[in-house]
Amino acid sequence: MSLPPVSEQVFLIETSKISPNPFQPRSVFDDDKLRDLAESIREYGILQPLVVTKVEEETETGIQIHYQLIAGERRFRASMLIGLDRVPAVIRNIGLDRQRLELAIVENVQRADLNPIEAARAYARLQEEFNLTQREIAHRIGKSREVIANTMRLLNLPTKIQEAVSRGVIGESQARILLSIEDQKQQQILFEEIRDNSLSVRATKAKISYLKSIDRKKESDSSKTTSDSMIEIIKKQLETSLGTPVKVEQSGSTGRITIEFYSSEELQAIANRFKTQEIEVTPEVEEPLPKTEIEHQVRINIHKPEPEIEEIIDEISPDDDDRPKMPWEDNLAD
């Protein structure tokens, strides 16, 4: 779909018989620019004719003919501002709604008259109402599919940010950067910073990198806290189950569990509990163990504390006549 060639016949049509295009993708018209255009038209006239399509309606008095605007709405509005009764227009036979929308989009895109949100909404309308794919839209509009897709993604932004893009408060590039922030609260905070401080695209990217680094640190700290809590829970569960002090140490993804016992009977009881609960007791080895389901290598030591000094002295007391004499005790007697 293209704009009318110069060779097409131009008619002077009464402005009262022309109605706006219901498929006009533009929703924002700058009043100051319209007044400037109106003054230009007053001085030089309309240099490029409007494009309209004829609409026939059957009434009680017969068939009434009026015209629907397809392209040139800014020129039409500016003409109305200075009170023109007639405007030059080319009449095109455009019966399909899709073609009217396409032509309106093409005209505005070629003139760079659509803001990014208006363009995104127009593309979405072609997709939703006329079942066109992004590739088909790109072919008709004369853009790449990537441009169409990236522009349409702007509609995923909150309404308030879309309005800011539409009014030119922030640029399209900055709006696309905001799309990379999943957290809407952070997205809103950064949007306000861009708006209030006029952040450049480079500054916006740097700010997002900083925010993401903070998020990664928070996730790391949270993971460490969760891991510490899990270890403490496991330690208490083991102590309750085994009835003896347990020490749990972790270093990175590996760790060691130390279980204390104070007699052979306690050791046997602990072993029996592990056997009953189907927990494998593995002595300390140099080779790393396979990862468990929680992806931690855990080494369990069964540890018997050294007897106290008093107990050793008591065991070698000379009052015990039944014990065998040590060789060095003869020297003590001399």
TrEMBL record:
Keyword Zinc: no
Family indicated by similarity: Belongs to the ParB family.
Annotated stretches, region: Disordered: 302-334
Protein name (database record): ParB-like N-terminal domain-containing protein
Record lineage: Bacteria, Candidatus Harrisoniibacteriota
Entry-linked PANTHER family: CHROMOSOME-PARTITIONING PROTEIN PARB-RELATED
UniProt keyword terms in alphabetical order: Chromosome partition, DNA-binding
GO biological process annotation, one example: positive regulation of sporulation resulting in formation of a cellular spore
Species the sequence originates in: Candidatus Harrisonbacteria bacterium CG10_big_fil_rev_8_21_14_0_10_38_8
Biased composition (Acidic residues): 308-321
GO cellular component assignments: chromosome
